[in-house]
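Here is the promised in-class demo. Please do not try to memorize the tokens; focus on the logic of going from shape to residues.
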């Protein structure tokens, strides 16, 4: 067994134009001051030079040194938006177009090529930073057809995942070459949003060694999925962990689909740690049981609480849940020295 590392914090939701949230150094010092030991760094927010990090180990050593001086370590790079743009259904072309450089908006083929190139840079940058995993979205081609009405044409979903596999296979090969896992956050809106869809994807990429999971129980609460059994089934593929809370309170008016309501009024909504319905004790126990060796990273999203309060409360919450795994059996005190002959005598063999 391995003790989970942490607490850590995902920086994306906190970045702003105001100090200390306007620079990586500023946020590193802020996070350390709250008790965090690690930071998950988004690659799309200008906090560091991705292209240079992919090419220069010296630059990455300097970056790690700056973080270390602040009191934190980099946990993973987060490339959700780049991963999203690997596969975009035309229905979402305009909405997701804003994630790409302005010159690529309205040019889906060029945007896709850019996203694939970005993901390969991320793999190389992660290697140079000494990281084991990258967080990402899968993108989606089949999401508009998630509900089977009208009836889907035969082969539609199969072709969507085959194409998704074709697009991701060379990216995953790059990740493997660099010794890094691509941990997909299973998330509504993505073609990879639960265990069944992750299995479809694994089949499409021949069970690729670098295809992994970012485990986030909040997304499973909103889908009414058993997030504890999920760990039992997929623990060998879990390479990253977002500690995020959520609640699902269906009413006579609205349920899982949310009725097009805003986050405040949806039956399913994200909450700050401890304010929702996720049972984190059993989650940390299962991850410890299966030897999860990565970080426990707060992702703050809440429709009610101020983000800085959520961040302040998150570090001790995670620290209290991390299990320092034992190096001995609890009943060793009652152990009795024996040998093979004694064991045979105890069993009544050859007496």
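The designed amino acids, position by position:
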């Amino acid at each position: 067994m391995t003790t989970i590392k942490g607490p850590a914090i995902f920086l994306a939701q906190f970045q702003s134009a105001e100090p200390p949230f306007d620079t990586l150094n500023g946020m590193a010092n802020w996070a350390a001051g709250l008790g965090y030991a690690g930071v998950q760094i988004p690659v799309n927010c200008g906090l560091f030079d991705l292209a240079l990090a992919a090419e220069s180990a010296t630059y990455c050593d300097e970056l790690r040194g700056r973080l270390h001086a602040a009191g934190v370590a980099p946990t993973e790079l987060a490339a959700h938006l780049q991963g999203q743009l690997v596969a975009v259904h035309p229905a979402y072309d305009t909405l997701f177009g804003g994630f790409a450089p302005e010159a690529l908006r309205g040019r889906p083929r060029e945007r896709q090529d850019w996203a694939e190139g970005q993901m390969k840079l991320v793999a190389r940058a992660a290697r140079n930073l000494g990281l084991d995993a990258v967080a990402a979205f899968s993108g989606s081609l089949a999401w508009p057809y998630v509900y089977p009405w009208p009836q889907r044409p035969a082969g539609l979903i199969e072709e969507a995942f085959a194409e998704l596999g074709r697009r991701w296979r060379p990216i995953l090969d790059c990740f493997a070459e660099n010794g890094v896992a691509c941990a997909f956050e299973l998330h509504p809106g993505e073609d990879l949003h639960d265990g069944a869809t992750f299995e479809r994807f694994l089949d499409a990429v021949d069970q690729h060694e670098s295809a992994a999971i970012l485990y986030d129980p909040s997304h499973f609460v909103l889908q009414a999925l058993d997030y504890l059994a999920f760990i039992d089934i997929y623990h060998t593929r879990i390479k990253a962990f977002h500690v995020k809370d959520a609640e699902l309170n269906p009413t006579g008016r609205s349920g899982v689909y949310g009725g097009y309501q805003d986050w405040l009024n949806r039956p399913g909504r994200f909450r700050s740690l401890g304010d929702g319905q996720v049972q984190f004790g059993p989650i940390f126990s299962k991850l410890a049981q299966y030897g999860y060796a990565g970080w426990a990273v707060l992702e703050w999203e809440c429709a009610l609480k101020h983000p800085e309060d959520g961040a302040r409360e998150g570090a001790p919450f995670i620290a209290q849940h991390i299990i320092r795994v034992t190096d001995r059996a609890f009943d060793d005190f009652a152990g009795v020295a024996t040998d093979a002959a004694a064991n045979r005598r105890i069993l009544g063999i050859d007496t």
